[in-house]
């Protein structure tokens, strides 16, 4: 699986005008832990920026990052005052150690093999301040039955679907990628949410770095 294929997939997806920046309010529970006067919040794999737009409107410093230039072009056009950065998270985060107060990764961490996923999480930890937050949502295992034509890979929980990789999480896998020796769980919940006009089964995982 190459970055080129993944980039092409997302550029085509975000070129679809039916894709709209929809926010379901999931970040509200964490706002008391965020600081409008602290370091930036990174919206990692922002897509059309529904999380970044919401945080920016609430006065938080946020940087919207994505691999898809198509998504970022649209975000620049619709929200020109919002800082954006084209970035491949699998290649590392271009931020100084301890410079971020939080990273938001809403359905963006489950597109990689195991080695890459662990590397991305290490990069997030490096860039977060000592008590920094990682707020993410991840495909639940139950969502696998809705994936278009999933094909197994050599890794459990990892499938190829529509030409890209998709990982599916249960609680054991969450604890494996985000061990309690490194992260304090603030909120871990599996539920369904409407995404782009359909129901999606996902995990919400709020963590504080230890």
Relevant terms:
single chain, 210 residues, alpha/beta, Rossmann fold, 5 helices, 24% helix, globular
Specify the CATH class: Alpha Beta
How many helical elements?
5
The main pleated sheet reads as: 7 strands, mixed
Going by CATH, the architecture would be 3-Layer(aba) Sandwich
Strand content: 25-35%
Give the helix/strand class.
alpha/beta
Widest sheet, order of strands: 3-2-1-4-5-10-9
Number of domains: 1
Query: Approximately how much helix is present in the residues?
Result: 10-25%
Point out poorly predicted stretches.
Answer: none
> At the fourth CATH level, what is the homologous superfamily?
Vaccinia Virus protein VP39
Overall average pLDDT: 93
Number of extended strands: 10
- Give the overall shape: globular
Radius of gyration: 16 Å
- H/E element sequence: HEHEHEEHEEEEHEE
**What is the CATH T-level topology?**
Rossmann fold
Give the CA-CA distance, first to last residue.
33 Å
What oligomeric state best describes the polypeptide chains here?
Answer: single chain
Could you walk me through the main structural features you see in this protein, from its secondary elements to its overall organization?
This protein has a 7-stranded mixed β-sheet with strand order 3-2-1-4-5-10-9. A 3-stranded antiparallel β-sheet has the order 6-7-8. It is an alpha/beta fold. The chain is globular, with a radius of gyration of 16 Å. The chain has 5 helices and 10 strands, in the order αβαβαββαββββαββ.
